[in-house]
């Protein structure tokens, strides 16, 4: 009897240990490839220069940049959230995705020509040239704030998964996992920056898409469906609804979602140093625009696959009589981690989460380093060796701050807090939208010293309006809050402006 009990315990240990070891080996191999890419791209006399770190020496092939940016735009949160949102809002997220594409066209034909004409390293230096130094630093500060909060929350997700399913069983604390994860990002980005990230993001995007397709394939096998049956199942599912035109109060109304999608891309790509830094590493404007067309269009089929996976998982749950978790974001992790789709999916899910999170965090860390060095410390005026040393210190300091914020999110241990972080981050893009819109679409000058106060007041007013609308009318603002935030910033700057003519070279596009 004791022998049988011992065998049973030993079997349980082996069953638990085997998948952990598979995941651990996968992670080690994955990062070994990333470090190899970093070593190869870091070769060359100027690999450690500012030209390589900040702009990749303007030698990045546009098609590589385009493919890699897909992974940088899709975080680990997106990887688990989009399939789960089908249960509560059907496939109406596609309305926002369609808006994304037109937003990318605006970025390609309005913002990119400006950035290339002025030969910018940090896009926020335009605000200093066009409006003034305080506006310049305000724009940079809002970017740094939103990026640090958003990146910490996204990295928290992957660190939590690694702690729960791999390292937690070995007695390794969460803070060590956070420190190790950020350290790995620092190792393969500290020397060549964007020059390396363009290529590592390509690998990570490939891993993300491959993991998604494989998970969909295994789910289809579990459902035992053929090609035509899959299409019919998805199209006939009540959650397959995409368009809502009739309900104006709904947050999923087509016009709200579509217009919001356009403005989300304009501010979170076109006015974001992280995303624009990759575009500015292309050889010229024409190639950067090609990158934007291809990258923008690719989001349509990719997000459609995520949503289709959500319908397939809901159908499979019905067939298996499973009780789904209350939180939509927990649906895919439940299937992946509890063995309903097999151990292979657990490995694929881990790869997808890691690829999505790290392709987002490595470029964010590099972009924040660029912003601090160029916008706040003005290292462009230093000699090359001094600039490189200062850049290295900034890169390390920002990495430590990122570790602190990841651990802070873990200590708070509340999903509502994580949601709040994303809401706060989305608020910070509104002032950027208003500042750039004022510079681009007016000939007027404004009182630079008042712009920081306007930029802080606009999100606060938006928050108050959101609370008032909810209490008085039961209406909750969605993505349209971003546009309102930008309008308030623009209005405040316009109210304090004068008719003094500015030089058109500064990017003013009004005729």
From TrEMBL:
Top-rank taxon, per record: Bacteria
Subcellular location(s) per record: Cell membrane
Alphabetical GO biological process terms: sodium ion transport
Keywords: Cell membrane, Ion transport, Membrane, Sodium, Sodium transport, Transmembrane, Transmembrane helix, Transport
Gene3D superfamilies: Sodium/glucose cotransporter
UniProt membrane topology term: Multi-pass membrane protein
Listed transmembrane segments: 20-41, 62-86, 98-118, 139-166, 172-189, 201-220, 292-320, 340-358, 394-414, 420-441, 453-471, 477-496
UniProt xrefs under Pfam families: SSF
InterPro entries cross-referenced by the UniProt entry: Na/Glc_symporter_sf, Na/solute_symporter, Sodium:Solute_Symporter_SSF
Transport listed as a keyword: yes
Cellular component per GO, a single term: plasma membrane
Record's keyword annotation contains Lipid biosynthesis: no
CDD domains noted in UniProt: SLC5sbd_NIS-like
An example Gene Ontology molecular-function term: symporter activity
Family named by the database record: Belongs to the sodium:solute symporter (SSF) (TC 2.A.21) family.
Record's protein name: Solute:sodium symporter (SSS) family transporter
Taxonomic source organism: Bacteroides nordii CL02T12C05
Organism phylogeny: Bacteria, Pseudomonadati, Bacteroidota, Bacteroidia, Bacteroidales
């Amino acid at each position: 009897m004791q022998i049988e009990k011992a065998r049973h315990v030993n079997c349980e240990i082996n069953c638990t240990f085997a998948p952990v070891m598979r995941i651990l080996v996968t992670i080690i191999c994955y990062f070994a490839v990333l470090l190899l890419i970093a070593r190869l791209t870091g070769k060359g006399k100027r690999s450690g220069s500012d030209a390589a770190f900040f702009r990749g020496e303007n030698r990045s092939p546009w098609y590589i940049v385009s493919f890699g940016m897909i992974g940088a735009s899709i975080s680990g949160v997106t990887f688990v959230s989009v399939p789960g949102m089908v249960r509560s809002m059907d496939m109406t997220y596609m309305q926002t995705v369609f808006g994304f594409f037109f937003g990318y066209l605006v970025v390609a034909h309005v913002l990119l020509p400006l950035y290339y004409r002025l030969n910018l390293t940090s896009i926020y230096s335009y605000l200093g040239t066009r409006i003034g130094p305080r506006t310049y630093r305000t724009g940079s500060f809002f970017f740094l704030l939103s990026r640090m909060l958003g990146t910490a929350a996204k990295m928290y997700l992957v660190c939590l998964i690694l702690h729960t399913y791999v390292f937690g069983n070995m007695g390794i604390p969460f803070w060590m996992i956070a420190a190790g994860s950020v350290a790995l990002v620092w190792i393969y980005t500290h020397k060549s920056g964007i020059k390396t990230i363009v290529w590592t993001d390509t690998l990570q995007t490939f891993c993300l898409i491959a993991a998604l397709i494989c998970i969909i394939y295994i789910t289809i096998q579990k459902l035992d469906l053929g090609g035509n049956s899959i299409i019919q199942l998805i199209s006939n599912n009540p959650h397959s609804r995409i368009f809502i035109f009739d309900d104006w109060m709904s947050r999923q109304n087509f016009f709200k979602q579509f217009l919001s999608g356009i403005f989300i891309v304009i501010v979170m790509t076109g006015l974001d140093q992280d995303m624009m830094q990759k575009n500015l590493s292309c050889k010229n404007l024409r190639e950067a625009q090609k990158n934007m067309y291809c990258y923008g269009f690719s989001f349509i089929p990719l997000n459609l696959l995520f949503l289709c996976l959500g319908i397939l998982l809901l159908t499979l749950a019905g067939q298996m009589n499973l009780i789904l978790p209350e939180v939509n974001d927990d649906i895919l992790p439940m299937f992946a981690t509890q063995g309903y789709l097999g151990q292979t999916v657990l490995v694929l899910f881990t790869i997808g989460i890691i690829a999505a999170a790290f392709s987002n965090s490595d470029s964010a860390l590099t972009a924040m380093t660029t912003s601090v060095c160029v916008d706040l410390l003005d290292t462009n005026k230093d000699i090359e060796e001094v600039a490189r040393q200062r850049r290295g210190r900034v890169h390390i300091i920002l990495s430590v701050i990122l570790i602190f914020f990841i651990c802070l999110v873990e200590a708070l241990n509340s999903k509502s807090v994580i949601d709040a972080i994303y809401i706060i981050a989305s608020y910070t893009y509104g002032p950027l939208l208003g500042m750039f819109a004022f510079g681009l679409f007016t000939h007027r000058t404004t009182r630079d010293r008042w712009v920081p106060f306007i930029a802080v007041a606009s999100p606060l007013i938006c928050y108050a309006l959101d609370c008032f609308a909810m209490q008085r009318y039961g209406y909750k603002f969605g993505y349209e809050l971003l546009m309102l935030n930008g309008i308030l910033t623009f209005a405040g700057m316009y109210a304090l402006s004068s008719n003094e003519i500015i030089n058109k070279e500064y990017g003013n596009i009004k005729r």
